[in-house]
Design a protein that fits this description.
Helices cover 32% and strands 19% of the residues. It is of the alpha+beta class. The protein has a four-stranded antiparallel sheet. A two-stranded antiparallel sheet has the order 4-5. The structure holds zinc ion.
Length: 112
């Protein structure tokens, strides 16, 4: 995994009040296969973790490229409440959200 991703994972572990559980570092999509993405399996911590992470300031600080999670799982009215793409707030379609109900996907930007 890249140094940027390592820094993100350490920050997530620090921020979460309970232990985070990493389900996938390596995967088939382009970000996972690049070592730039991580999936956090315990989606139950979303409500605790994401308000502190899914802000423009933290997304920039942590070099987050993508953040995908269906916030309706955490009883939020807006399922895209915490989502980012290319470092900007982004509304994913229903098909993408459907794949991100049981884990939180993070990808970081490419290292310069
Ligand atoms: Zn993922």
């Amino acid at each position: 995994m890249t140094a940027t991703l390592q820094a993100l994972v350490l920050h997530l572990a620090d921020t979460a009040s309970s232990k985070i559980s990493i389900s996938s570092l390596i995967g088939i999509d382009r970000h996972h296969s690049d070592g730039r993405a991580v999936d956090i399996r315990n989606a139950a911590i979303a409500k605790d973790l994401l308000p502190a992470i899914a802000t423009d300031e933290m997304v920039t600080t942590l070099s987050i490229d993508e953040l995908i999670f269906d916030a309706s799982v955490a009883h939020e009215a807006d399922p895209n409440k915490w989502n980012y793409s290319l470092g900007k707030k982004h509304d994913y379609d229903a098909a993408t959200l459907a794949k991100h109900k049981d884990h939180i996907h993070f990808a970081v930007t490419k290292e310069k």
